[in-house]
Amino acid sequence: MHEIVTLQLGQRSNYLATHFWNAQESYFTYGDEEQSPIDHNIHFRQGIGADGSDTFTPRTVIYDLKGGFGSMRKINALYEMEDEPGLQQGLWDGGKAIQRDPTIEKSDYQRSLDEGLPPPPLTTETVRYWSDFNRVFYHPRSIVQLNDYELNSKLMPFENWDMGEELFSSLDKEHDLLDRDLRPFAEECDQLQGLQLITSADDAWGGFASRYLDKIRDEYGKTSVWVWAIEDGAKDQRSKLLQRMTNSARSVHEMATMASLYIPLSDSPAFVPDWINFNQGSRWHTSALLCTALESMTIPSRLRNGKLETFSQIEGPLNVNGNQRIANLRFSVDDPKKLDAHDTSLGSGIAARGEGRTVNPTGNTSDSEEEDAGAIKDLDIDLLPWAAAPVSRTRRRTKRHVFGRVEVSRGESGDSESSLERDAAYRARQRLAGRPITERFHSGLKFPLLDSFPRIFKMSSSDEQSVGVYSSLSTESSVAVRIEALRGIVGKNVGLDERETLSNGLDEICEAYEEGWHSGSDEDDD
């Protein structure tokens, strides 16, 4: 069945994943409805509830700190069992003093879902935790609370990369986290196509994820593992920015070499077009923006009717030189508010689907090549985080070179056939000519705009229930610019014992995005 198991690490990851699971739940069909185009067995497992009924719960493991789950309980309505009458006292016959943490009340949205009533509209004020807008039941094994640290603690904030690394090591010695948490889900799969690990990369969760991924690679060496690495793009004090960038550098150095694909995501993109109503201070909003791209980009991996493309097929065209594992994610939304497709003030976006010349975010122009006519070129929103550090002149680029690109469009228009089956001869011709390897996929299934999803898109109609999305993953020279900026920060903020190893490792990553082309060649520029 080509199943996928997901690991969610930390608050920002869980906000993003909650939007993802809500979208998957919306694809279910019941009774006499037409069969869903989504194969639910890819991301959901079948089980038996407390009352003997069949259940479908996500194939996921959710880690968060104490207090991070909000009002969510480990045992939910699907698996809840009544207490047996008469409490057994055991060997102690004396009195008991029970101390309980203050309980977090359910949001009005959750109470309405429990009672089967239409839920009230959500706002940034009513969404306090990711569980406040969750629409899915999880298996009790999916919920893992880490009590060593508390969410939003002022005394011991979970921010330093080393803290996450140390926490994983201490917990793993006691429990063997992979055996206890991940293996039960992986062993239920008939044909595991891959794992997706969603984590924040610029705080302590980056260290936790790095050690987790290291152990995964020991056990599942040939399995595709995609890492979605979230970084905070908001402005902050200089000391905190430097710490975040240092954490990001260490995460890239550790995970990019072990992951099949490492996709860095800025939750506050540098450029946000006018058609987005976006509150950068709300994780509910920022995670919704990221989910639109992530869920759309991965949709080929869970379609039925013979159209399914596995993780390994999708990542194939991207890793052109064998060591290009960091990919840049971009996306656009189809014609919000019926905007003029040729309005370049929004970026190239939808207009870039036509032939001819396109405009990229840096303002440089390039001719569409014969093999790439009609391709999705530069989309409106670039999610690659950019470090606030100077870039050396040796690697400064006036133009962006693309090595490989996978494009996914979803909506009513577009070619319904996939080009991901292109043979090796096509890829060899593209490499020889210095052109990017471009693969495309189209699905008629639009992205759902649920009542749990914030109205961040300015649509022509307020009651729109879905939207077309155009997304792309690409390996390109801009990754080297980003890594070089991180390397410059490492030289100032990491101890001498680690500086050389980390700097050399980041330098090797940069070189992987410069091989095989020259900045002075017009023929090679995309």
Automatic annotation (TrEMBL):
It is found in: Mitochondrion. Residues 347-372 are annotated as: Disordered. GO terms for cellular component: mitochondrion. One of its GO terms (biological process) is mitochondrion organization. The keyword Transport does not apply. Residues 2-115 form the Misato Segment II tubulin-like domain. Belongs to the misato family. This is Tubulin nucleotide-binding domain-like protein. It comes from Xylona heveae (strain CBS 132557 / TC161). The lineage of its organism: Eukaryota, Fungi, Dikarya, Ascomycota, Pezizomycotina.
